[in-house]
Design goal:
Blueprint: E1 3-4, E2 8-11, E3 14-22, E4 29-34, E5 37-41, H1 50-63, E6 70-74, E7 80-86, H2 90-103
Parallel strand pairs: 3-5
Antiparallel strand pairs: 1-2, 2-3, 3-7, 4-5, 6-7
Amino acid sequence: MAAAASWYRLLEGALEVRVRVQPRSSRKQIAGVLGDRLKVLVTAPPVDGAANEAVLALLAAGAGLSRRAASIAAGATGRSKTVRLEADDPAAVVARLEALVRENR
């Protein structure tokens, strides 16, 4: 049961989000869609997992989920990552993230 858009994939009880991370940004935000990825800006440096943690916290908060619901599924050491968000209603999470993307255009 997987439906797909360019930057996310709906799964049973979860959502996989393809992101492109810009560490050491002057602000933290979900900045929009860049190609087939969600662009995420974080102020943390890419050292000792700090940027990964910041990305997970930002996406979870933006999606209205607890931090524990977010994990890195692929790309832990690169700027292109896949983040898994565990949610009872993944479609609602997509709607929240899309609203943030529209806000930050």
